[in-house]
Write a structure and sequence with these properties.
The chain is an alpha/beta fold. It is built from 10 helices and 14 strands. Helix 7 links the parallel strand 10 and strand 11. Helix 7 runs antiparallel to helix 8, helix 8 crosses helix 10 and helix 9 crosses helix 10. It starts with 13 loop residues before the first strand and ends with a strand.
């Protein structure tokens, strides 16, 4: 029987066995509801996998959730961040302030965090606005999407590389670089228990957001990276998955294969959409014609921006594969099928 995502109100900290505890931390105002933060015991103090959203309600949930399973946030040894997004890295800095813990993430995401802090808030908004304009968004849509931005997470103390062992005395927790959702996303293989903390890379029911930012970049291909990362995780075998959202599930490999199939089918549908259009489309026009979990017109501004990022990532993969081309010399950017 398939599990279902329970609302945050029904979530409780639980002992999932093998010296691992799950602590749900709310994401106020977000349909995901909560992040599952995991605490791994060690003789030198617990290490957290992710930390949750930077919000007073979330902080209380993390602090009190750890206390409910017999841990003191002031004794946390370290926080391993699966990726830099605010629902994962947001509270890492506050945990560090309380406990003196180290914070670690992959070097690629650490570089992005450093870059974000180098820009002032106004500069970040201007860059995003120009990206939206080049994608074909109307002025009012640009204003809506850029209205709110969370602060960047705290910079890490340590950077991780593919295959590194995390500083977790008495345990074997290995970083598996799985780029796609972010350039530096990592899964974490707890080798002494045969489990995989999957972050947002492999989730049991939903598929993680794969976006291209800026939308018109031509030097990266995050969707292809993601598909390769899914194959990499599948090669690890039938590990139990401890994801950052929804619920714990069996057989990471099978679910990774399902998600690969989902995106390949999405690429086929996108190719057909461009063929049916009969003319070049902007990224924004393409996103508006794709299928989402609700009609395009009903998506809030932030979600339209994310949908455009996902459309851009799929267009980029089709471009790399030689299925479509960018129309030269036009602004905003347009894509068309190769003739």
């Amino acid at each position: 029987m398939k599990s279902r995502r329970r609302p945050y109100s029904e979530q409780r900290p639980i002992d999932v066995g093998g010296g691992v505890w799950s602590v749900p931390v709310p994401i106020p105002g977000n349909p995901l509801g909560y992040t599952l933060v995991y605490a791994i015991e060690s003789p030198a103090g617990p290490v957290l996998v992710d930390a949750g959203w930077n919000h007073p309600e979330a902080w209380l949930a993390l602090r009190d959730g750890l206390a409910a399973v017999g841990m003191d946030v002031r004794e946390v040894r370290g926080v391993v961040v699966t990726h830099f997004h605010p629902d994962h890295a947001g509270l890492a800095g506050q945990v560090r302030e309380e406990s003196g813990a180290w914070v670690a993430m992959h070097e690629a995401d650490a570089a992005l965090v450093k870059l974000m802090w180098s820009f002032g808030e106004g500069a970040q908004r201007d860059l995003q606005a120009d990206m939206l304009r080049r994608a074909g968004a109307a002025k009012v849509e640009v204003e809506e999407v850029t209205a709110e931005r969370p602060r960047p997470p705290a910079p890490p103390d340590r950077t991780l590389h593919d295959g590194d062992l995390v500083d977790l005395p008495g345990r074997a927790l290995r970083a598996i670089w799985t780029p796609g959702h972010t350039p530096g996303h990592i899964c974490l293989h707890l080798e002494d228990t045969g489990r995989l903390f999957t972050g947002d890379h492999v989730l049991p029911a939903i598929t993680p957001h794969i976006g291209l930012y800026p939308y018109d970049r031509s030097d990266v291909d995050p969707l292809s990276d993601f598909l390769d990362s899914l194959a990499k995780v599948a090669d690890l075998g039938e590990l139990e998955a401890l994801p950052a959202h929804e619920w714990i599930f069996q057989d990471t490999a099978a679910r990774a294969t399902e998600i690969r199939t989902h995106h390949e089918e999405k690429l086929v549908r996108l190719t057909a959409l461009l063929a049916e259009a009969g003319e070049p489309l902007t990224i924004w026009e393409t996103a508006g014609r794709m299928s989402w979990n609700r009609p395009w017109e009903e998506l809030p501004a932030m979600l339209r921006g994310m949908a455009a990022g996902e459309a851009a990532a799929h267009l980029r993969t089709l471009e790399v594969r030689g299925v479509i081309r960018r129309v030269p010399g036009v602004d905003p950017v347009h894509y068309a099928l190769h003739s």
